[in-house]
Every structure is written in structure tokens, then in C-alpha cells.
Amino acid sequence: MIYAKKNISNVAMCELDCAKCEAFLASKEMNLIKTKAKEIFTKTKLPGCAWVLNQYVGCEHACNYCYAKFIAKWKPTDYGKWGTWVEAKINAPELICNRKVKGDVFMSSISDPYQPIEKDLKLTRRILENLDKETNLSILTKSDLVVRDIDILKKFKNLAVGLTINSFSGKIKEIFEPNSPSNEKRIEALQKLKQDSIATYAFVSPIIPGLIDLEDIVNKTKSFVDYYWFEFLNLRGAGKEFAEILKKEFPASYKIVSDSELYKKFIEQSTKTIKGLGIKVRGIVKH
């Protein structure tokens, strides 16, 4: 395992552009931990899939509502704060070779496969190159970097690519999703993917009272999105730190999500709105 923080002179990037990766890490003051996995496919109970692919653990997007933060409690304390470290399973492309699994595969559940470091690491790209093209694969990301790999994505026989979309911009986005690409870029990525005949979906999340406009999102995307997933905020899963931020910055939203009866009514009303939009909905996650 190699650990990098600020001083990354000892990082050997293995089949990658070392200079670019080191410059990136130094500029972000990010910890990169290189690991070797024994297995790359992991069984899951997530809705709509049988397996998950997590070539990265941790995410630079640093979304403070992220449910995957729970994984940090099993990591060394010197990794740093969530959003400042990433584990990369550097042998994942080799593990994926000549592998076939039955059931749908989801990439990824505890990271973003196209977070900033992927631009130079190209770990996700190399996995896609080696992955059996008959795999039933669903990719979910917040990044428009995914369009870089359209040439490979088009080779899969059963693939869908989703972008997480919400209404966050300006101050709200800076608070909730400081390092992720804008929603405008994500929507443009969905449009580009669809133009290249790749199946697309929008994962509308997190749905927070007063901070998301469901009808606006659908109107902006329905002409090039095949189906939708919707996910309501899981306040408990988002953690105490996020709850405090929401309470301080958006008290009206917090009042609803922290009151079981008020939140239940909001979810019921929003679900009714979703069902009336005339779109294909694959799932509504209510936690």
C-alpha cells in the first residue's frame, strides 16, 4: 500500500502518467492509497443489481450528505476527512479479465467511478476495456468525464449510464457538493451519451424539501433520458454533521425532514408529482 499526502514524491503510478497524477494530487492535497484487491465483484442487496464494482473507495467529490461516509470508520484515522482520500484498487483491471457473472452489475456503490483522479489514473477506463462486453452493466456518476469513454461504452451489449441530477447550484452546491461538476455539465453528458446511442438514466438525488425542483429536472432531461430513479434524503444515513449543516443553513428544509409526519407527507406529495410526470420510473427510494 502506498500512501500519498501533499508530499507525493514516493508515489509510483503504475502504467499511468506519473507527472500528471503527482501534480494533481499535490494541487488537491489529496491522499491516494494504492491497494491490491483479492476480488473485484461484490455481492449486493442494492435494488436493481446483484453485484457492485468498486475500483475506488472514497470520493473526492466530498458530498457531505454521502451515505458512503460510513466506510470511513473502518479506515485508519490518518487517511483524513471524507473527500480528501481515495483508495484505488490498482489490480482491478487484471482481476476483471476473463470474468463473467450472472446478474446485473452496478458501478459504483461507495465511490464515483469518474471522480477527478480518474482523469489521469484511467482505472475505470482500463476496467471497462477488460470487462466482458456482455455484462449487464449500470454506471452511475456525478461527472461529465464519463463521455471520455464513449468509445468503449458503445461496445457493451447491455449497458446504461446514469448521472446524478439535482437542483443544487451556487451556495447550495458549494455547501453540499463542493467538488462535483455542475448539474449543467451532467445534463450535457446525458445528452451526449444519448446522441451516441447509449442508454441513459437520471438518478435524481437527494430530494430535499425546498431545495430541489422535480418538474424542472424532468423537463430539462426527458428528451434524452430513458428512465429515472428518484431518491429521498436519508437524514440519518447522511450523518450528524450534515444534519447540523442543514439545520443551520436551511432550517425550513431541516424542519420537514427531521419530523417524521411532515416528511412522510412531503414524500407522498412528491411521489404523486413524480407519477404524474409521464416518464418511465425504474424506482423511488424512500429509505
Give the key terms.
four-stranded mixed β-sheet, 20% strand, alpha/beta, 34% helix, 12 strands, disordered N terminus, 287 residues, eight-stranded mixed β-sheet
Q: What's a concise summary of this model?
A:
This protein is α/β, with parallel strands linked by helices.
Structural notes for this entry:
- It is a single chain.
- The chain has 287 residues and is of the alpha/beta class.
- The protein has one domain (2-285).
- The chain has helices at 18-28, 92-96, 118-121, 123-130, 150-153, 170-176, 183-195, 214-221, 235-238, 240-249, 251-257, 260-275, and strands spanning 2-4, 31-35, 41-43, 51-53, 56-57, 85-89, 105-107, 136-141, 158-165, 199-207, 227-232, 281-285.
- The strands form 2 sheets. The chain has an 8-stranded mixed β-sheet with strand order 3-4-7-8-9-10-11-12. Strands 1-2-6-5 form a 4-stranded mixed β-sheet, with no helix packed on it.
- A hairpin with a 7-residue loop joins strand 3 and strand 4.
Outline, from the CA principal axes?
globular
Strand order of the largest sheet: 3-4-7-8-9-10-11-12
Helix content: 25-40%
| Rg (CA only) | 19 Å
Number of domains: 1
* Number of separate helices: 12
Oligomer: single chain
Major sheet: 8 strands, mixed
Report the end-to-end length measured between terminal Cα atoms: 36 Å
Query: How much beta, percentage-wise?
Result: 15-25%
Structural class determined from secondary elements: alpha/beta
Low-confidence stretches: 1-27
Report the average pLDDT across residues: 90
Give the ordered list of helices and strands. EHEEEEEHEHHEHEHHEHEHHHHE
The tally of beta strands, per DSSP, is 12
